[in-house]
């Protein structure tokens, strides 16, 4: 069933979606998407529609049992996706934020680990009160977040498993197709490379007998090429490559660019990912660093600036 | 190296701890433990010391790579441990809550998934305000939680990996040894049965080549018998058995009771675990159900009542 060039075949895609457990609340998600895209693709008064970006964030899980007790998880705090969402909204994009449940949320990254217990206290009148040290972080989290949602510029859709992630991504991409080159995909989620097909999975908890546990995982179908070719062929697409070994990073990013026909691949190394990334395009490798003269500055600030500029060029190219 | 009766050997334990990555802030944890146990083991005015229970909660992770990108996780919300902690504190125990980062916290279980964004809003004076619908849940979370910590009745220690979990559990158990029969272990955490020894682990991210991924995990050493035999031999010990298949549940609970010399094993099935459990002892199987005539009642309420009563008997037995 595997194609010879390493790309996913139609049969593999069909088999993945056919065998996946059905998505809960598919209709609700479809309605939210339709409404969000209608709202933001309408002319904004100045004759041009708002651009829409789908930001994916956090890691997917791969269940090892149907009644899930054990699963394989991909580490990702979701910090990159959450921070980038803030900068996209600042740059007047509408953002569909497809995020792992429990991962970092836009406008919330300066909060402590357990904000409710660490940022609030009761006064004698039994009124809840924000601690002085947290007040700016709490204001940003509640106020800016609510403002973005209320204005219709931020739609949040959660996932946990790779099955949920790919099914919702497909729905988003197909509903963004009509936006043509005004759509962007910023695929920062850490998607599992391997999975256990639902039908091959143990129904019950795997028993720990006396021996070791041998597991065979198969390659998860890479949906990037399908997204580019079929789901939203006019959209501007950026994927991410994370490695812990800097020696193979750029080579792997380059391979992903060509194989999946991405417009750009953001290459990042685990330990330095909040300091700098390298944006790999067909003809250039562009290093992007955070402004080290500014305390608390983010690498996402110049990164999103660069991407918005390249997206503008992509739209201009498509129009001519 | 494996012993013939399926129990863990001294060499296996030594090898696990020797090869584990060193615990961060070991000294800080040791100091907190010492202070907490001193405070609570001092006579409470009425001549008797407070009993101390170690509640473990949430699932452990097993890293698949040393610079961890991928790991295997055990599903556990931590609801059981968090709720039980509240009832133990109500029953005048001091609780050492050894919990998985991000899992459910005591006094917080009625909160929505993202309390900061869902429970608060800004008023025009830019004062933060609790939404009416959440006010009781927020009051409980902040007030009761802070009260328990401030009174010195609740010490919270977080873990993520199985390496952190077992290292901290060992420290807790050894520091509770002097409490003799007044100490209790309530081991509700979902600990991985399998793991990859740190030294066998890939240093870098496992590459997704063209084939399937074959993995071999070895059995994690079961520390329960060591806890009973060496770390805290006088303590009252309760472990948990969760299965998705009710047919094998009681048999497995019984086996665990005998093999690890637990005083009790709480048997629970995945789908009904919030409605009822069965407490397995050497001579009885005691079903414990939540009070269905009371809306919002917990199975942990009668469960902790039963355990406190059995713990009293254990202390009396030891004293005579």
Automatic annotation (TrEMBL), chains A, B:
Protein name per its UniProtKB record: DNA/pantothenate metabolism flavoprotein C-terminal domain-containing protein
PANTHER family referenced in this protein's UniProt entry, alphabetically: CORNICHON-RELATED
Organism: Hevea brasiliensis (Para rubber tree)
SUPFAM superfamilies in the record: CoaB-like (SSF102645)
Annotated family: Belongs to the PPC synthetase family.
TM regions (residue ranges): none
Family annotation (InterPro entries): CoaB-like_sf, DNA/pantothenate-metab_flavo_C
Residue ranges of domain DNA/pantothenate metabolism flavoprotein C-terminal in the record: 170-274
